[in-house]
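User: Earlier you gave me the apo prediction for this protein. Now I'd like the version with S-adenosylmethionine bound, so I can compare the two side by side. Same sequence as before, with the ligand SMILES added.
Assistant: Got it. Here's the input I'm using:
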Amino acid sequence: MDWISMRRRVARTRLAPAVALPVRAASVAGYDAQLLARSARWLARSREHTNYTYDLTDRNLGHLAWWVSVVTDTPVAEARAHIAEAREDGDLREHVREATLRSSRRGLADPTARLGRRLGWYAIARAVKPDRIVETGTDKGLGSVLLASALLRNGRGRLTTVDVNPDSGYLIAGRYAEVVDRVVGDSVAVLGSSAEPVDVFLHDSLHTWEYETAELAAVDPRLSRRAVVLSDNSHVTDALSAWAEKTGRQFLFFREEPADHWYPGDGIGAASWPRNDPPSR
Ligand SMILES: C[S@@+](CC[C@H](N)C(=O)[O-])C[C@H]1O[C@@H](n2cnc3c(N)ncnc32)[C@H](O)[C@@H]1O
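And here is the structure of the complex with S-adenosylmethionine:
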C-alpha cells in the first residue's frame, strides 16, 4: 500500500486524531513560539502598561484606506494619501517624542509615535473637514494631537477632548493645542451640556456597552447631517452597530492587525447616514 492510500485509510479510523496529534501540536507550538518571541521583545523594549500603541501591517493599512474610502465616500487614493501624510509627519513624531520625554509619565510611555488605527481617525477627519470633532477619552492625547494635525491641515475646525482624569492630555501642547478644547469631566455630562453641532464623534472613554450607549444618546441631538460617529470599542460591544440600526444609519467595522506586537489589536466602528441619502434634520 502506498503512503497516500495508507493516510486515507488511517483518516477513516478512530485512531486519526491521535495519529495527527504531533503535526497539530507542532503547528500550534510554532504559532505560540512566535507570539512568545514578540511578547518578550515588547517586554524588553516598551514601557507601556495600558492603551498600547503599535504600527499596523502594510496590508492592514491598505485595508484601512479602503475602509475610510467607503465610510466617507471619497476616492481610495485620497484616503491612502491622507494616511501616508500622517505617517510621514516628522513634526508630529518629534512633538510626541519631546512631550513624552518631558512628561512625568515618561516611565510608563514610549516616545515613539505608533499611530495604529488612529490613522483611520485622521483620514476621516481629513475627508470630512469637520467644524467640530468630539473625542471622549483623552489619555496621553495621542489621538488628540493626530486629530488636531488633521484640522490644522484642513485649515478649519476644532477638537473637544473630554477625560475624567485631570492628568490626561500631556501631549496636547504647542500648535496642536491651538485647535483643541480640553475638558475634564464625565463625558456623558459634558456631551449633554452643549448644543453645538458635532461633525465627527469618537467614543474612546469608558469601554462598556452601557456607557458607550449613554454617550451615543447624549451626543445624538448634536450630530450634524454629515456626522461620522466612531467607536474605539466595536471589537468588544455592539453598542454602535445597535445604535446605527436604531437610527437608520449604516455601520462598518475595521479590524486592526498590529505589526510585531503581542496585542491582537482593536478596531474602529463607524456609523453614518448614506452620503447621498441623509434624512432631513
Ligand atoms: C483608551 S483611553 C483614551 C485613548 C485616547 N483616545 C488615545 O487616542 O490614546 C480611555 C480614557 O477614558 C477616560 N475615561 C474613563 N471614563 C471616563 C468618563 N466617564 N468620562 C470621560 N473620560 C473617561 C480614562 O481616564 C482614559 O484616559
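For your comparison, keep in mind: Strands lie at 132-136, 158-163, 180-184, 198-203, 223-231, 250-255, 267-272.
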